Inverse folding.
């Protein structure tokens, strides 16, 4: 893929993230009515808002790049050589409870490589954006991971959802706290990764993330100077894998503690 193709898709991704976020925000503010629905798993929510935003993204993508494929959290899709992977609302549990910690996550992948990543936080109008080998920005300004080098000075976010082993998650949390870290979980993995890239958090860990939750945020962290665990796992992109993203100085110790 040449630079012109990448630039066109980068401009499209930034525009689409803001458009999708604006639509989601109308639902969040109840300007458009919706009813939360359970996916059949405890605390796993979806709504017409998720589906409407994903439909908007799919239609925009078909119009702009009809030969690219798209994989969305809600309606699935294909992953070919050039693919867009989209989470229309990451942090739906927060969204349906009126908590302003959720986002739109968009990544473009070419031949298995993350090329463009956008995470947009509509309630705070913050667009975290990166291109592979380029720059990582927050609303157009350069961003960088923090310089934190000690766990007893670190603010770490650890993702947990019902499908994870609760005992293993609690044990890791206990270990991190015993090492002196402060550990939080704000409930939107893509946005927490974006905040690692912006230097607000020092690391993020989760034993498994789907590609629509992890991919854009990982690119942001990498291009902002952080280190990440190789993703996805051996089972491939659709299967996802473990996520570790942190400042360079913390990575090795966190990798050893997590055991992934």
């Amino acid at each position: 893929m040449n630079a012109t193709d990448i630039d066109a898709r980068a401009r499209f991704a930034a525009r689409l993230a803001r458009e999708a976020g604006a639509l989601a925000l109308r639902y969040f503010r109840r300007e458009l009515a919706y009813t939360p629905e359970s996916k059949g798993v405890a605390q796993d929510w979806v709504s017409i808002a998720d589906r409407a935003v994903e439909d908007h993204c799919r239609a925009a993508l078909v119009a702009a790049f009809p030969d690219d494929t798209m994989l969305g959290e809600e309606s699935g899709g294909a992953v070919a050589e050039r693919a867009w992977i989209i989470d229309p609302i990451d942090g739906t549990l927060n969204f349906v409870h009126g908590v302003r910690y959720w986002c739109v996550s968009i990544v473009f992948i070419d031949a298995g490589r993350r090329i463009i990543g956008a995470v947009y936080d509509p309630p705070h109008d913050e667009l975290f954006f990166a291109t592979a080998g380029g720059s990582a920005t927050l609303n157009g300004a350069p961003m960088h991971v923090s310089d934190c080098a000690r766990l007893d000075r670190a603010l770490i976010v650890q993702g947990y959802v019902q499908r994870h082993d609760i005992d293993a998650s609690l044990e890791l949390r206990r270990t991190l706290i015993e090492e002196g870290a402060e550990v939080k979980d704000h409930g939107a993995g893509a946005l927490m990764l974006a905040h690692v890239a912006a230097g607000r958090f020092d690391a993020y860990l989760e034993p498994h993330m789907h590609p629509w939750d992890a991919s854009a945020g990982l690119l942001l962290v990498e291009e902002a100077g952080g280190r990440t665990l190789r993703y996805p796992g051996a089972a491939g992109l659709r299967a996802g894998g473990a996520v570790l993203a942190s400042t360079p100085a913390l990575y090795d110790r966190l990798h050893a503690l997590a055991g992934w």
The chain has a mean pLDDT of 93. The two ends are 33 Å apart (CA to CA).
